[in-house]
Amino acid sequence: MAAHGPGGATPADRTLRVTLTGVRSLTHLVYAASYLRHLLDADGTALEVGLVGLAPGLGRAVVTPEDVRAYLPSDDRLALDLDVSEEHFLVRPDRERLLLSIGAPGLRVWSRMVRAGRGRPPRVVVVDEGIGSYGDVRTRLAAYRREGGGRAWPVVRASAVASGNRILTDVHWSLYRSTRAGWIVDREVAAEFARRLEGPASPAGVAVYLTQPWPEVGIMAESDYLAHLDAVREQCASAGLRLVLRPHPSEDPDRYRGHDLLASRLPAELDASVVTAAAVVGANSTALLNLAAVHGTRCVRVTAEDLRPLERALGARQRSLLDTFLPPAIEVDRLGDRLRELRDEGAAG
Known about the structure:
Layout: E1 15-21, H1 26-43, E2 46-52, H2 65-71, E3 78-81, E4 95-102, H3 107-116, E5 123-127, H4 137-147, H5 152-168, E6 171-173, E7 176-179, E8 182-185, H6 187-196, E9 206-210, H7 222-238, E10 242-246, E11 260-261, H8 272-275, E12 279-282, H9 286-295, E13 299-303, H10 308-312, H11 316-325, E14 330-331, H12 335-348
Parallel strand pairs: 1-2, 1-4, 2-3, 4-5, 5-6, 9-10, 9-12, 10-11, 12-13, 13-14
Antiparallel strand pairs: 7-8
């Protein structure tokens, strides 16, 4: 199976019918858009893109049909159907078929496409869902258990997803690729993030903290998390920086009353106010990784006692990926020193 690439060219005089599934966040749309743009640029192929179900996001992180229209490429050769009918799955001789899935092949949709094709499977392309894409069965199982669903169902789900990813996927279209020299950023995928960057630049002297819904998923009590953020604010102030919190899209910002907020539906790595901050602080996350690797933003990983189980649960590839693009995690009481080092490095540069 190809690790990265178009997965077989479609002649320019034919139309490719793409079934997109598994979208749960705006970032997922960016990954999907990068592959669709690749197809459009590769050989002039016309695309019929049908979206099958917007999967529910975590908490308030809801993707709308308007978001899909805004984030996927705007091109006369791309026809978008947000309410696919049974006709979308019918096999026609002038339509090649492709299943474009987030994170792993959508098994129900894949089965439906096989039935419609009288046993002939579609070509399958899987794009990133985030750092979870670089994990394994164990890390995926841990993530599903944090989301809930009883004791047995996460095991079944993790095993099925891992098997589908291994057996059915023709192309993994990934932001990060492992080479003999180590991890590298795929510039074609990264270009989509640069293309979608919007908003004003950050004011001088601002450090942005990327919050996570730790209380909702049982990682940290809300009172402990707020105390953690108070300590982060003190450390930032000691380095001459004003702390601004960037709530996760799934969170209720009211939790952070008393803090300066930078609330937005934009993914952090598409928000110029975050990208251009003097420093971005957070725990291990896809957004922090992407900010450092794609945009070169100065990022600092901080840890806490309650977060250590999450760090231990990382897979080897995830740990290696984070360590390639981000500095080692530090305790909050060392944050001020690290921020002063970044300030001095910036002045020297």
